[in-house]
Fold this protein.
Amino acid sequence: MRTFNNISKLQKHLIELKNSDKTIGFVPTMGALHNGHISLIKQSCNENDITICSIFVNPTQFNNIGDLDSYPRTMDADINMLEAADCDIVFTPTIETMYPSNSEKEIIFNFGSLELVMEGKDRPGHFQGVGTIVKKLFDIIKPNNAYFGKKDYQQLLIIKELTKQYRLTPKIIGCEIIRENDGLAMSSRNMRLSNEQRIQAPFIRKTMLWAKENINNYSPSELILEVEKRINSNPEMKIGYFEISEADTLIKCEQWKDNTDYIAFIVVEMGDIRLIDNIELF
Ligand code: PAF
């Protein structure tokens, strides 16, 4: 596996690969890798000649400085995992590389209503930061395919929109959520859970499965109230939000409609750790 932290050296290497007709799959990450990320790497390795992973904790997508400071950084372990997963290239730029002080003004993106709900509403500026860094990375790497987990489903839709608006090169591929054996969605944040929080955390998935089983027994608003009540009854948890939305547009579901794909989205706060998950309802 080759490691680059310099843009021009990486691009020189990528040009050589592209000149020999190699397809490039790209997995952007913020490090603290787990098997969810590795499943993206493996899918990319299966579908492309060359797989490149970036590791960059992007400051502009954190609206809370405490969250940025406490974000886990495990570079050595990450490199070992990527090596073991047969990743070909890892790109580990510094903040100065991605945000040079003399750089031109950052773009303000218009993601429309996709940005006004859920994570966009709770974390002002978050998706502007995600859009900024993903566009920079796509512009540098120009991959054929780029892989994103469906756990961050709203991010996936935003990146599809970004790619469409700016006619960026890659096809965006959404990959299934990878879970621990007890159902907890894999996340870099899980490593910060205390023992007791970790024992309780699968209750999020259990509650989501309960919601899916009970869509015929409740209206959307009743189901939301019931899920909020269940989560808040767990002493380790506080509900951030539970929302039911149309899968393509994230428009909130007021009443169940036939022939519509709905996804339920949840955020649960466990101490200062924010866990997110979602489930397809139909
Ligand atoms: O999902 C993430 O880890 C980040 O939001 C991403 C896409 C790597 C951009 O920093």
Notes: The two ends are 41 Å apart (CA to CA). The first strand starts at residue 2 and ends at 4.
